[in-house]
Structure formats: C-alpha cells, structure tokens
Amino acid sequence: MRVAACLVLTLACIFVGASAVVAKRAVPAAVAPVVHQRITYSAPRSQMGCIEAHQGRHLIYRRQIYVVKFDPNLERDVQDVFIKTLKLKDNALIVTNERGHQYRLDLKSLEVEVLTGSLVEQARKRREPIR
Fold this sequence. Notes:
The chain is an alpha+beta fold. Helices cover 17% and strands 37% of the residues. The protein has one helix at residues 2-23, and strands at residues 34-36, 39-42, 50-55, 58-64, 67-69, 83-89, 92-97, 102-106, 112-116, 120-122. The strands form 3 sheets. It has a 4-stranded antiparallel beta sheet, with no helix packed on it. It has a 4-stranded antiparallel beta sheet with strand order 6-7-8-9, with no helix packed on it. A hairpin with a 2-residue loop joins strand 1 (34-36) and strand 2. The protein is globular, with a radius of gyration of 20 Å.
C-alpha cells in the first residue's frame, strides 16, 4: 500500500510539474541592436514594445512603439508580445514584433507609423506559436 501511495504521489508531481512548464513561455531572444550615426538603437526585454536610443552609455530617449492590452483572465506571460527584430531603412527603424507586425520609427521626428498590425496589441485567447 505504501509503495502504491508513493507511486501515485510521484506521478502526480510529474504531471503537475509538466503542466506548469508548458504554461510558461521561453525568455524572448535578444534583439540585435542597430547603430546609425553613432547612436545605438535597442529593444530592452524589460520594457515590451519599447525602443531605446543610446550614445555611448548615455540614454538619449526611450520611445514606446506599441502597447499590449492584457486580459486579466489569461496568464500574462502567454500574452507578451516582444520585439523580435530591428532594421534600418531610409533614416527609419523598422520594428518587427513576435506576431510579425511591423512599425516604422522615423529617427528624426520619432513618429511611429504602423506598417502591419496595430498600435495596441490585443490579448489572444489561445496560445499562438511565436514566429
């Protein structure tokens, strides 16, 4: 009887542990910074949808590109939408997020133009694969 109880407890721990691992998303990959006219543009993981501009160690500005509207009834980590790539094109920064949505940040005016997607990323009811 004691062996059976230990076996049941062990299996229960394995299944509960496995389901907890499935619910958590992986840490987003680091985004390669872009350098233009001695200014480094980066996407910090600590602030979703945001770009920072640095000259050396000095922060020049931080610009929000898009925001994520969270559904309080869903796990927050499965709703995260991080920046995936930064590319320089015609004095603008092209920002692509994990959903494939693209934004254009004019480096002179700091205006954000939506190329695909929306300025507000909505929560998704089901977990989507990260592109």
